Structure formats: structure tokens, C-alpha cells
Amino acid sequence: MKFNRIYIEITNKCNLRCSFCTAGSRIPRQMSTEEFSSVLHRIRPFTDYIYLHVQGEPLLHSSLEEILSVCDQAGIQVQIVTNGTLSERFRMLDHPSVRKVSFSVQSIEFHHECNPSVYMENILSFCRRASAAGRPYCEIRFWRSDQFTSERTVQAYEYVLSRYPLQDTKRKNSFRLMDHVFLSIDNSFDWPDLNHDEVAARGYCIGSLKQLAVLSDGTVVPCCLDAEGAVSFGNLFRDDMEMILSSERYRKMTENMKNRILSEELCRKCTYRKRFDQ
Q1: Are 148 and 157 in contact (CB under 8 A)?
Q2: Is 139 exposed, middle or buried (0-12, 13-18, 19+ CB in 10 A)?
Q3: pTM (2 d.p.)
Q4: Each residue's pLDDT expressed in tens, for the chain with a length of 278 residues
Q5: Peptide bond into 165 cis (omega under 30)
């Protein structure tokens, strides 16, 4: 069995407090290099592609260089999702395992001490180097289109437009800026929460079927939106993948999902999941 991707949350710590992220109640922690190596060893036969993200800012991790070296040695492809504020650490993203870097630039609204033009130039400078080198792919994400009335977001967006024309691609709301560098715009969404109202009892999602996520404490959950570990299949610090994939909860969820039955309460209260019903 192969998953399209598995998310590994190397840290749930962040240097910003953005309103669009769920606040969460988990204890802040980061995986040690040894913990990450163990997790990667256990998931490696099941995917070729990992995201170093669920919550938190991966560039904050004190051993990011070592973690990416572990990925290099494993021959796995890595995507980094970063708020782009720690530009002094961008040099670490030159590892051969890093296939794509996504900059969530809506974070500029919550990075008040930084000038939007300086912030964007730091990101674009990295993107230009990546474009010239032919790797990694870069994505500048304005995924909260409802924020385009916010002054700092508008300034950041206009800074990009003043330097690069948006070239249409085959993907909706995705534009090419230069070779290997893209800008995307999408609508906001609400993080699923067990305290929310139920959205639907039937439907479909790729969570658990095509992706899994591993939280910073080793908990395995069906997708990158289960930030509180509401749907736990086990823990990769102690369990192997075969045990997790044979667990009753995992088997029940995936079989029901294939039949468009949402057996997990969190899934019934997730509005983002509805995107996969189409």
C-alpha cells in the first residue's frame, strides 16, 4: 500500500499566532532527530513524499539541517510549508530531498514588525535562486482570498505583481511567475473541530486513503487537518505501520469512506472535506 503523501509534524511550535490557524491545546514540542529518523524508517515503504508540516513552523526546528540530511539519505521527496518569516534559515532548504517549498504569505498580516516589501523580497530572492538552479519548486500562497481587503496582504501582493506578470497555468487560481515558481490564491476554510456542528454524515475524502499525518508526539491521524489528534490510529514512536494500518479504527474508517460513509465525528464536522465530494 502506498500513500500519495504523509505529513510529519516535526514541531508544533510557531513564531507567529495567526488567527486562521486553530489554537489547539497540545503541549508545544519538537521531534528529536532520533524520533524523526524512526518515524521516517517506518513510513518509508509506504510513501515517496512527505510534508514536514501539520501545524507549527518547520524552520524553527533546532535540528532541521540534520532532519533534512536524514531525508537526503532516505531518498524521499520533501515539501516544506513555511510562513516565510525566518529568511535567515532559507539556506537550509537547499538539500536535495527538498522538492517544493510553499510560502504561506497570508502570515504577513500577523508579522507586524516586518515591512511587506522586505518580507516579499526575501521570499522572491529565494525563489529566483531556486528558479535558476532548477529546484526546488516554489509556491507563493495567498490562500485566503478574503484577506485581499487587508492592507499588508495587498502590499505584499502588489509587490509581486510589480516585478512579475501572472502567467496562466492549467490549474485554477495558479499562476506562473518564473521557471519552477508559482503563485496561488484560494479561499479560506475552517479547521474541523469536535465542537462544531455536523456538516454531513455521508461524503468522501482522501484522508486515511491517500494521506496520513504524524503529529509531533508520534500520534498517527488520517489527515493534516486533525491537528488535535481526534482520530488516532496509534503512535509511530512505539507502533509499526503494519500495526497501525491493521487497527480496527483505521480499517473501519477507510472501508466506510470508500462507501461514502463518514464514520468519524471529526469528518462529519469538517467543511474542507466537502471539496472532495465534487
Answers
A1: yes
A2: buried
A3: 0.94
A4: 899 999 999 999 998 887 667 767 789 999 999 999 999 999 999 999 999 999 999 999 999 999 999 999 999 999 999 999 999 999 999 999 999 999 998 888 777 778 999 999 999 999 999 999 999 999 999 865 555 667 888 899 999 999 999 999 988 889 999 999 999 987 777 889 999 999 999 999 999 999 999 999 999 999 999 999 999 999 999 999 999 999 999 999 999 999 999 999 999 999 999 888 86
A5: no
